[in-house]
């Protein structure tokens, strides 16, 4: 197939790409980016969930919950009546400040999402209510934590299968493709490697499975004909998950860059991600007009199956002073992210266990995502100790010393408290700070009340409000409004009264600890200002809250 790039445009900082593919029949196939959906950041893993809605992951965007270092939040674009893709919307209700991607619908009202970071690590169900998605629960997925690297995947066969890519001890190379079967309402089987017909010593990623045609679409940089990463197609040939044909490159959507993810809008329309710019960031692509999709009709048998090596590529890194070398995979292209393979793996020796890295902190203003200067105090019971060398803190040391919490402080901001379980050892620990300025709102997420009353409950509540009181006493010029909220269950009048009484209880506690009464105002809003759907208990729990609003 002969290809030539017809157009390359850059407008308003956004990459708008158009390609012209000429095939043997002389028919031109023009490609376009989903201009409303794409950004200068990394846009990948498109997932079509019906109702004209496409979900995808966007990395490093300033509006991500983790800011410009966030490795992936979930965004959404819709296809309007004119067939145009609308500007993408950030779905904070489906995202964390860590790595997030959607796998697709388990059923008409249940979406599966993978999270890594911010206290959520694993696979989670979200329930649809109107246009909102409400957190439902975590699913049981044994073996998921054993998959490392950049996880990508997709739900298939009406929510009965999940195909995933990641690195594991039985991988043939870097990322391999695995499958898991649903065994209960929230239960899944241990992922099974798809074998050597699919997986190579390189990278196989982002699987999409069509159960009706028994076709597996995936990205590979090592199968025959790959330039960078390309989409390959294989057909299931037997009853076992290792029974596959020899994969064939999907020439119709191949480019000089790297194609990583694919999703089908219909039998005749497809969207995929492609990197054709020098920074290696991906855009979402489709055909300018609907054209026949030219997928292989005949498949040849795969070579005889082989067992995976004793060590995966990631474990078999060579030590110094060996004759092993690193060489590029298919160096015919310099576009996209660098990809390498290891030579002479049989002669390599595993490296010694890596030393624990120090904690990497990213403390930013939650409003504008700007980095902040900060200090840290360690809390051991009632004792607070300053940290002199923030860049030399190790999680294991904190745990061994019995540190309960870490207090992060920045001048002009409310202090933030992190439990040891919230601190990451192999990734950045992102801390979002709320500035003390009129209009700022701070959620008191550790303040609890006895059910149906305004009576404060729990040691955590007392500790949280005591810390707040200390801050307000030290900053007597700050005036705040304490806003009480409930869910919408029950009588609206009673709910409003209860929310006001709870705000009053918080004020009374703060005054008792020395905060000036004149600096505290209270309001009760009942269930009139929800932040989540009241259709689920998870949503109602979020709505039952107390917030501080800075008024001066």
Structure explained in plain terms:
With 552 residues, this protein is mainly β. The protein contains four helices and 34 strands. A six-stranded antiparallel β-sheet has the order 1-2-3-22-21-20, with no helix packed on it. A four-stranded antiparallel β-sheet has the order 4-5-6-7, with no helix packed on it. Helix 2 crosses helix 3 (492-512). The longest helix is centred in the C-terminal third of the chain and has 21 residues, at 492-512. Mean pLDDT is 83; it is low at 1-28 and 311-352.
Q: Total strand count, please?
A: 34
Q: Roughly how many Å is the radius of gyration? A: 26 Å
For the largest beta-sheet, the strand count, sense and barrel status come to: 6 strands, antiparallel
Q: Pick out the low-confidence regions.
A: 1-28, 311-352
Strand content: 35-45%
Q: Please state how the strands of the largest beta sheet are arranged side by side.
A: 1-2-3-22-21-20
The DSSP helix count reads 4
Helix content: under 10%
Overall pLDDT confidence? 83
What is the subunit organization of this protein?
single chain
The first-to-last residue Cα distance is 67 Å
Query: Which structural category fits the helices and strands?
Result: mainly beta
Task: Indicate the overall shape.
Answer: elongated
